[in-house]
């Protein structure tokens, strides 16, 4: 992981705590709304939690990221109306939010903190929701890959050299398909879902002709949701970006991308991210990648 | 007034910027500064590719075949005076050049992209010959260093 300025980390912590206070207010309003779900409010909470999750990865705050991930799962169920935000459900979300705030009070030691109880409560909410989420049968995507699972990657890139590099490299680990713009990516993704062979990983360029990367992410997540696939169990989406597009990446997080890779792509960093998202196992080390 | 979500997003953008590479930090060039960055940074390329020289050679060969087409596309977009397409084409060339460590070409492509974004066509026209020249120098160097086999030059500068 990159070395980041300590002030930047502190700024992130302060900002996240303020955001979580807003999340608490929104959760209480969501509880009051009951079955009359205010989609805008639920989306706002979900995106805030998702952004905190994404940023936590960048700042190496693993426990915070893990708890945010589980919280996002429940919020995604509420958003897709598969879980009613009844008082008991909202109370669990509030406890998760409180725990996140506590973890942000001591970010230096947060990775060693326990979150087992609250994660168990969140998981129970997901398990009890009806209909159950079928992960692999719907998408082909899994949260943690087994040794015999075959990784499926969709590479979306209009830059020839970058495409050649990533396709050659990723083919060593996966079945790698290519799209050269966002429109092709959406169609490839839809077609793959129709065949019941969704993608585990999408590497998505941002600035592309016809349909750009951000719009493609938005439509891909909408396709997943329309088929009952929560974004947290859907394809992992890595945005590939240049410095000039940094602010665009942030907007992509709002569309529920998972992480980003700076161009020119460093293959070691690519493998680290794939490992962090359980797409490859640690034994598939950078050294093993070189033939 | 900014929302909390926007503040967090801006902070994330700062964090992303903090991870940028040295090459990406470089400012766009003007037409008189085309020789500043290195023609080819093979060490950085190999480092980014985990030392895989075979992969590096394959990507370099692909780039040397594709870049003339990109430069011709850029010329065509300049003739059309379509700034949005010039910007996109220059962006593409910049990305390809960065991928293979063609630092000088990348810097010129960035300058063209920046000028096109500001709807300034004259600097784009001025810089295109520099871009072609830098590509030829890049090709000559990677051939001379044995990364790829020697082929005929498409451009005659």
What does this molecule look like?
- The complex is a heterodimer of chains A (291) and B (157).
- By secondary structure, chain A is an alpha/beta fold.
- Chain A folds into 2 domains: 6-128, Four Helix Bundle (Hemerythrin (Met), subunit A) (Up-down Bundle), CATH 1.20.120; 136-289, Response regulator (Rossmann fold, 3-Layer(aba) Sandwich), CATH 3.40.50.
- Chain A is built from 12 helices and 5 strands.
- Chain A has a 5-stranded parallel beta sheet, sandwiched between helices.
- In chain A, helix 1 (6-33) runs antiparallel to helix 2 (39-58).
- The longest helix of chain A has 28 residues, at 6-33.
- Chain B has 157 residues and is mostly helical.
- Chain B has a single domain (38-157), classed as HPT domain (Four Helix Bundle (Hemerythrin (Met), subunit A), Up-down Bundle).
- Chain B is built from 7 helices and no strands.
- Chain B has helices at residues 4-18, 22-25, 42-48, 53-80, 83-100, 103-117, 121-144.
- The radius of gyration of chain B is 17 Å and the shape is flat.
- Chains A and B meet through helix 1, helix 2, helix 7, helix 10 and helix 12 of A and helix 1, helix 2, helix 4 and helix 5 of B.
CATH superfamily of the largest domain in chain A: Response regulator
- End-to-end distance of chain B, in Å? 54 Å
Along the chain, the helix and strand elements of chain B come as HHHHHHH
Order of helices and strands of chain A: HHHHHHEHEHEHEHEHH
Which runs of chain B of at least 5 residues are low in confidence (pLDDT < 50)?
Answer: 21-25, 31-35
Q: What name does the CATH topology of chain B carry?
A: Four Helix Bundle (Hemerythrin (Met), subunit A)
Determine the fraction of residues in helical runs of chain A and give it as a percent range: 55-70%
Radius of gyration of chain B over all CA atoms, rounded: 17 Å
Structural class of chain A: alpha/beta
Report the portion of residues of chain A in β strands.
5-15%
Name the overall outline of chain A. Answer: globular
CATH architecture of the largest domain in chain A: 3-Layer(aba) Sandwich
CATH class of the largest domain in chain A: Alpha Beta
Oligomer: heterodimer
Largest sheet of chain A: 5 strands, parallel
Instruction: Give the uncertain stretches of chain A in residue-range form.
Output: 131-148
Helix tally of chain B equals: 7
Task: Return the structural class of chain B.
Answer: mainly alpha
Number of domains of chain A: 2
Question: Mean pLDDT of chain B, as a whole number?
Answer: 85
């Amino acid at each position: 992981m990159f070395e980041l300025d300590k002030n930047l980390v502190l700024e992130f912590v302060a900002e996240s705590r303020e955001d979580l206070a807003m999340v608490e207010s929104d959760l209480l309003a969501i509880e009051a709304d009951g079955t009359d779900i205010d989609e805008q409010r639920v989306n706002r909470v979900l995106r805030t939690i998702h952004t905190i999750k994404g940023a936590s990865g960048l700042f190496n705050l693993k426990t915070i990221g893990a708890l945010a991930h589980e919280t996002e799962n429940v919020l995604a169920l509420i958003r897709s109306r598969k879980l009613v935000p009844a008082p008991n459900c909202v109370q669990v979300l509030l406890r998760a939010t409180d725990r996140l705030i506590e973890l942000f009070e001591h970010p230096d030691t947060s990775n060693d903190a326990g979150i087992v109880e609250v994660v168990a409560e969140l998981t129970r909410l997901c398990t009890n929701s009806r209909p159950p989420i079928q992960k692999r049968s719907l998408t082909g995507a899994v949260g943690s890959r087994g040794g015999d699972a075959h990784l499926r990657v969709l590479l979306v890139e209009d830059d020839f050299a970058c495409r050649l590099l990533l396709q050659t490299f990723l083919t060593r680990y996966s079945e790698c398909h290519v799209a050269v713009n966002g429109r092709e990516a959406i169609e490839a993704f839809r077609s793959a879902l129709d065949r019941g062979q969704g993608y585990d990983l999408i590497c998505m360029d941002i600035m592309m002709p016809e349909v750009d990367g951000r719009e493609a992410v938005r439509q891909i997540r909408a396709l997943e949701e329309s088929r009952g696939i929560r974004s947290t169990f859907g394809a992992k989406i890595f945005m590939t970006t240049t410095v000039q597009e940094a602010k665009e990446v942030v907007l992509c997080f709002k569309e529920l991308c998972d992480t980003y890779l700076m161009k020119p792509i460093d293959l070691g960093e690519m493998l680290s991210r794939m490992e962090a998202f359980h797409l490859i196992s640690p034994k598939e080390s950078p050294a093993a990648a070189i033939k | 007034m900014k929302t909390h979500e926007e503040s967090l997003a801006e902070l994330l953008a700062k964090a992303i910027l903090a991870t940028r590479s040295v090459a990406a930090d470089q400012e766009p060039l003007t037409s008189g500064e085309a020789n500043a960055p290195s023609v080819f940074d093979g060490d950085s390329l190999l480092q980014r590719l985990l030392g895989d020289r075979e992969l590096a050679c394959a990507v370099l060969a692909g780039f040397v075949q594709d870049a003339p087409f990109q430069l011709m596309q850029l010329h065509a977009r300049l003739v059309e005076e379509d700034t949005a397409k010039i910007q996109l084409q220059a962006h593409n060339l910049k990305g390809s050049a960065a991928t293979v460590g063609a630092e000088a070409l990348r810097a010129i492509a960035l300058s063209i992209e920046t000028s096109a974004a500001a709807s300034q066509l004259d600097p784009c026209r001025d810089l295109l010959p520099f871009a072609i020249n830098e590509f030829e120098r890049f090709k000559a160097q990677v051939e001379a260093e044995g990364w790829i086999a020697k082929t005929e030059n498409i451009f005659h500068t």
